[in-house]
Specification:
Blueprint (H helix, E strand, L loop, with lengths): L1 H8 L3 H14 L2 H23 L4 E3 L2 E3 L1 H30 L7 H9 L2 H28 L8 H28 L5
Antiparallel strand pairs: 1-2
């Protein structure tokens, strides 16, 4: 009987609450992954793009390199968390915990392994091209002092995003495909 169980076993509001919250999060990738990931990605891209050409002032606050680093970090984290969200949703569909939506089916059809490899390679090549241009400039200056932090940060961010996209494409294939091997 329930009252006997509560008296003998007791309840722990923290662990019971955590177990309930954990259950809700794990079965709702939208709230656990996609919304926070999209927020981070949008905020990160906004900061990075705004600061690409140089420092800006907003209401007397000067934003320069440090917020740009934060923007790059948020961009990379946001992209990865979004990928995790799609993987979690795909896995939940595959094991029968949830049903697929029309939107999710479109995502599955559009972002095939081949397309993700191409997108990732393009993003990575743009970042690599920027990195090569930085090295070229450094060499042409006889390896002297170089101040290309903004360009370097963009190159690094693009290279990481490209690699994340490529490897996420391979992982999504193992999750979504019946015959991944």
């Amino acid at each position: 009987d329930l009252l006997y169980f509560i008296r003998t076993k007791g309840t722990n509001p923290f662990s019971d609450g955590w177990r309930h919250l954990r259950f809700m999060f794990l079965y709702s990738p939208l709230y656990l992954f996609l919304l926070p990931g999209a927020t981070m990605l949008i905020l990160g891209l906004t900061l990075t793009i705004l600061l690409t050409l140089g420092p800006i002032s907003i209401n007397g606050f000067k934003l320069d390199l440090h917020p740009m680093f934060l923007g790059a970090l948020l961009t990379m984290l946001g992209a990865q968390v979004i990928f995790f969200g799609f993987f979690a949703k795909g896995y939940a569909i595959k094991i029968g915990v949830t049903r697929s939506s029309t939107f999710y089916k479109k995502i599955e059809r559009v972002f095939t392994l081949e397309r993700m490899l191409i997108i990732g390679a393009i993003i990575m090549l743009v970042g690599g091209g920027l990195a090569i241009s930085i090295v070229y400039k450094w060499v042409s200056m006889n390896f002297g002092e170089l101040f290309e932090i903004r360009k370097s940060l963009i190159a690094l961010t693009l290279i990481v995003l490209g690699l994340q996209t490529i490897f996420s494409g391979f992982l999504s294939t193992t999750i979504f495909s019946e015959a991944a091997i």
